[in-house]
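Our working data are protein records whose layout never changes between entries. Instead of coordinates, the fold is spelled out as a row of discrete tokens. Here is such a record, shown just as it appears in the course material:
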Amino acid sequence: MSDASRKVIISCAITGATHVPSMSEHLPITPAQIRDQAIEAAEAGAAIIHLHARDPNDGRPTPSPEIFKAFVPAIAEATDAVINITTGGSTRMTLEERLAYPRLAKPEMCSLNMGSMNFSIHPVAAKIESWRYGWEKDYVEGMEDMIFRNTFKDIRNILLELGDNGTRFEFECYDVGHLYNLAHFVEQGLVKPPFFIQSVFGILGGLGTDPENMVVMRSTADRLFGRENYQFSVLGAGRHQMPLVTMSAILGGNVRVGLEDSVYLSKGVKAETNAQQVRKIRRILEELSFEIATPADARKMLGLKGADKVTL
């Protein structure tokens, strides 16, 4: 049974690398837009801010450290939220490109996809009537023939290199097998509790959005790690965002929202800012008598090194 007296961490993924600007005019793409939306999301109650970068000229995903530097330090200066930098980047980036900024920043947290997989939203292309930029159509349609790569060696190297700087991880698990991949690294001694497991539902190539799948992921993680050793969180893609993350809290977990995961606030209504989604889930959680974790709470719950040990 869920403990309503515990604190729930809200993560907010600001822009990602999957959605394209033609899907929403509100998707932040410039450093200023990413900065402002991240700060507003933190002020609304997000304890963790998950960040990707985009080329400000046309919104395409970029691993450029210079572009990250144009907004990450400003976010850190304006808020005490935990800064979580992607190591996933996009399916078009090499591992070296994906690690370029995390190596420099040595952040408190990085996301880490727990396996290679088919990862696609290519069916969405048929629903877009007008493309804002020339690169977008090929990018979305091309996902049908792309694989996101994170081999066991890739994961091990990320854990060793970034972990040596005290960075901890948002372990993104898109399927049950990813939990077993995580268990492998626990057995190797490369991952120690408390783990932060982000279960992802609704991406083509991973687990679907059936509520039963969440129970499978939760119970499997309990069996592999012991509930006392990890924090569970849920990311629901698209229209499934709010129902699934609410279910996560009820099952004793945490929640992630943001325009990376869904460009909508409700059916047929696009979110104009990330903060709108944060405010909505915060209201739902507080009406269910859950307390929202502050950044200080999140750092304690996840065993983070602290913002003062980061070189953003």
Q: What stands out?
A: The longest strand covers residues 195-201. The radius of gyration is 18 Å.
